[in-house]
């Protein structure tokens, strides 16, 4: 990937042990809401000043429950005694690429400060300069179709080439394709994760996560060592929305977590975009619902750029760059859906078709079948009435009653 600027790794301020202890104690104080913490910091200054105030002063500034939370003894963090956890963080932070960011840090993402409840403390890995760059989120189904994966990667690459950072959540499916496409572009990607910054989830994305940590940025509000928990992912989605000027949903079922991200983005005043699909495709239903509710229908990445105020010349340049690139990356095999065991060539072709028409070249890339095998499978499917040929050398699956 060609980066827009040299990686910035030394922009974060260095916290001494006592200051880090105060930030961690406030960030993990049970019952202390982010808004109350910001109120206290505004009233008294830094975290050590807050910790040294009397109960009466704290209660007057932010309420009795906030005062009780601040002055309560620190509890264990992820089962680790508080003092031991401080030692773990102090050992983790100096490693290359690792950063602790607080609300008082100049490197803290400015976009998050427009949220009502920005985290007091963030763990980051990688390029801090990306955290201040205008961003667009691309999210969608974990069980994406081949067409959805291609669309996510293509949109991400073009938007990255135009100068936007692509934000996503490192999940299987659309998220992973968005990260890969953005890494192929000129700007890069931010992965907001629902685990500790020292863990990779899902494990299948070990290589991708390390590539993002090296060439992009990984961000987490969860303590080191925090495993994946279902309750954490809606929280993660709020940070994805908060970091971005707009959120693009590529594929989503009616009960998709991506719709939570879209709702949160809308509540924060961010733009919401959705890619339409077949009325027969379950993973298009969530996108169509968003469009009915006011999301902007987009069919090309240039339409997102126009909504973001890019000039016609900038969008034309992005389109030209896209036209010169290969239709499908040579490393597609790493992003496509796993092939079910025991399926024949015909089933591979049907799976690759999904709900949208595709050309012979696209099918060859998705299925990795040689020409003769692909042609034979298509012929058999046509004769059995499961596939129909369309004008322009395209093929489509036939819905069966």
UniProtKB/TrEMBL annotation:
Example GO biological process: DNA-mediated transformation
InterPro entries in the cross-refs: DprA, DprA_WH, DrpA_SLOG, WH-like_DNA-bd_sf
Domain DprA winged helix: 335-393
Positions of the Smf/DprA SLOG domain: 100-308
Pfam family, one: WHD_DprA
Domain of life: Bacteria
NCBIfam families: dprA
Family membership: Belongs to the DprA/Smf family.
Protein name, UniProt field: DNA processing protein DprA
């Amino acid at each position: 990937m060609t980066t827009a600027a040299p990686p910035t790794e030394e922009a974060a301020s260095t916290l001494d042990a006592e200051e880090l202890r105060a930030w961690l104690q406030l960030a993990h104080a049970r019952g202390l809401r982010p808004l109350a913490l910001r109120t206290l910091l505004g009233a008294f200054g830094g975290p050590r000043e807050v910790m040294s105030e009397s109960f009466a002063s704290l209660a007057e500034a932010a309420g009795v429950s906030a005062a009780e939370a601040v002055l309560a003894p620190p509890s264990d963090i992820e089962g680790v005694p508080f003092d031991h956890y401080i030692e773990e963080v102090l050992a983790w932070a100096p490693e290359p690429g690792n950063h602790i960011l607080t609300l008082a840090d100049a490197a803290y993402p400015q976009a998050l400060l427009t949220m009502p409840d920005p985290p007091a403390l963030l763990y980051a890995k990688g390029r801090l300069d990306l955290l201040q760059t205008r961003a667009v989120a691309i999210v969608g189904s974990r069980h994406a179709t081949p067409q959805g994966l291609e669309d996510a990667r293509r949109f991400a690459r073009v938007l990255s080439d135009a100068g936007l950072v692509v934000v996503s959540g490192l999940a299987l499916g659309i998220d992973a394709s968005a990260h890969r496409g953005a890494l192929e572009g000129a700007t890069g990607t931010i992965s907001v994760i629902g685990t500790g910054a020292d863990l990779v989830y899902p494990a299948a994305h070990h290589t991708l996560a390390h590539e993002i940590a090296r060439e992009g940025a990984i961000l987490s509000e969860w303590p080191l060592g925090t495993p994946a928990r279902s309750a954490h992912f809606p929280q993660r989605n709020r940070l994805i929305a908060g970091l971005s000027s707009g959120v693009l949903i590529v594929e989503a079922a009616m009960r998709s977590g991506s719709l939570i991200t879209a709702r949160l983005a809308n509540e924060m005043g961010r733009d919401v975009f959705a890619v339409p699909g077949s009325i027969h495709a379950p993973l298009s239903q969530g996108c169509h619902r968003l469009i009915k509710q006011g999301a902007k229908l987009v069919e090309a990445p240039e339409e997102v750029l126009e909504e973001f105020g890019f000039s016609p010349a900038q969008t034309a340049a992005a389109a030209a760059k896209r036209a010169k690139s290969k239709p499908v990356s040579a490393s597609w095999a790493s992003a496509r859906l796993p092939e079910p065991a025991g399926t024949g060539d015909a089933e591979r072709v049907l799976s690759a078709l999904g709900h949208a028409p595709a050309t012979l070249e696209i099918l060859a890339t998705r299925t990795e079948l040689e020409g003769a095998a692909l042609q034979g499978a298509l012929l058999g499917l046509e004769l059995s009435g499961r596939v129909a040929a369309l004008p322009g050398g395209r093929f489509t699956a036939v819905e069966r009653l």
